Amino acid sequence: MHAYYKAKGVDLKMIITKAVDDSIQEIVEPVIDRAVKIAIVTAKQLILKDFALESNPDRFKTSFGNVVKKLAGPLAQVTCREPLKASMNRTLKTYLTQNIQDQAEVDNIITKAIPDNLDLGCALIKKAVIESAEEAIRKDEAINNSIN
Question: Do the domain assignments include residue 106?
């Protein structure tokens, strides 16, 4: 446990966890929408062209799903990094200033907590995007009609 988790009677671990969770919730929906839409459109173009003569619809659908997931996850991870960092900064500052009066200490905690938790937040968003992409693939009538 890092030293910044120890403050005068304040449960910083709980505050940081809540701030990270709230920050993820704040940005996850737009990131999901954008990454999934871009990945589906791109994958359709790639897969429809590459598998135009494929007679096995299962192979086509499996390839389409794999391409969408491989595109959506990293795209989300790249596009969410800066908005998540900014959101974490705002949220942490709000939560910490409610519990700690020393602004220098608040800034020090934020400076250390964001880098320690940013990759985790991005990974959680990436996971949510991949799950949403899988659901979108199941519901995408255009691709299902292209298969049959």
Answer: yes
Count the domains in the chain: 1
- What are the pLDDT digits (tens) for 22-52? 999 999 999 999 999 999 999 988 888 877 7
Q: How many CB atoms lie within 10 A of CB 24?
A: 22
71-84 pLDDT, tens digit each: 999 999 999 999 99
Using a 10 angstrom Cβ sphere, with 0-12 exposed, 13-18 middle and 19 or more buried, the burial of residue 122 is: buried
- Integer Cα distance of 32 and 138 in angstroms: 16
Closest CA to 75 of 40, 112, 114: 40
**pTM for the full model?**
0.83
